[in-house]
Amino acid sequence: MSDPAGTQGCPGGRPEAVLDPGGLEALVQVLKRRGRTVIGPTVRDGAIVLDELDSAAILPYGWGVELEAGRYRVRRREDGSAFAHSAGPQSWKSFLHPERVRQWSADRGPGGGLTVHAEEPENVSYAFLGVRPCDLRAIRILDRVMSGGRYRDPTYLSRRTGAFLIAVECTEPGATCFCVSMGSGPAVDDGYDLALTEVLDDGGHRFLCRSGSDEGAAVLAELPRRVADEPTRATAAHRVREAAERMGRSMPPVDLRTLMRDSLEADRWDDVTARCLSCGNCTMVCPTCFCTTTEDVTDLTGDHAERWRRWDSCYDLDFSLLHGGAVRATPRSRYRQWLTHKLGTWHDQFDSSGCVGCGRCIVWCPTGIDLTEEAQALHQEATQRENTP
Question: For residues 71 and 82, what is the distance between their CA atoms, to the nearest angstrom?
């Protein structure tokens, strides 16, 4: 039975529909009318980056990417797909947990008195268009880290509260993707307001759209849409299943938490850190790394000073600096800290892995270090130790 409103119930009980490419433009304009700043992917400077969208026309229609360890290239596709690309150099962390945030400023008056001005969090209402399943998981992880404990971050809360999330299921994984290993894709499960699955076949270019919240259903009701037909549903589901079978990478099929715990003295750490530059690229592009430090700056007169919070990396020698020196003085100790924390002890702190399988750290490592390869090597070494009399 057809739905006169153009929507039907999806398996979760909320409305779903089919949008044509023009429906994406309407989606952007509806969200803007609701007072939201719409952020989504677009092509710029030889990469697919996240930026403010005034129109859906600047989505990366017809663009894909070629990925490998230490390599990223955009390429023209033979079709007009908007979301057939893998994760780029940015993640949504850049908007929710900005790289630099001013915390306060201080001015010295004519009489020598000091006036301190606290920095209030920016009032912004975001809509994120094109959130991959792995990145949707990353946002949920950041939620626990930045707003779920005793010490909530006001900057993160001001940007995250009320953010409207439009997820896009992955139908074309990259060579460095391994979200299946981490249980974070290529299908979306929950935590979204709207979810899109792009379909482009003989039936045309369209998007299966389902709502995941009351606001999502309300936005969907404002869009030009048609009834979700069974062929579109079936094709969308098939494309996602295919993507799951075409992951470019995988983790060893073991308990990674236990593997990291039992491999602290493995010889493999010497091998990987002979290649590691300790540049911190992997932590900068990681959608869940959240560490920060503070820096104080002043003008030449000394009458104005500011304190800024900025991203920091556990690869920085000063990251663990105490009065007696650096706790982790070698690249070996710093790489081991990052990997064992990300895959292992993160569970102790936040009840999940800190890795979502997006593959960014592999792509943007200048020497092409691959954490899935390192985990496999640690697993093989552990197996050899167990089998050695």
Answer: 22
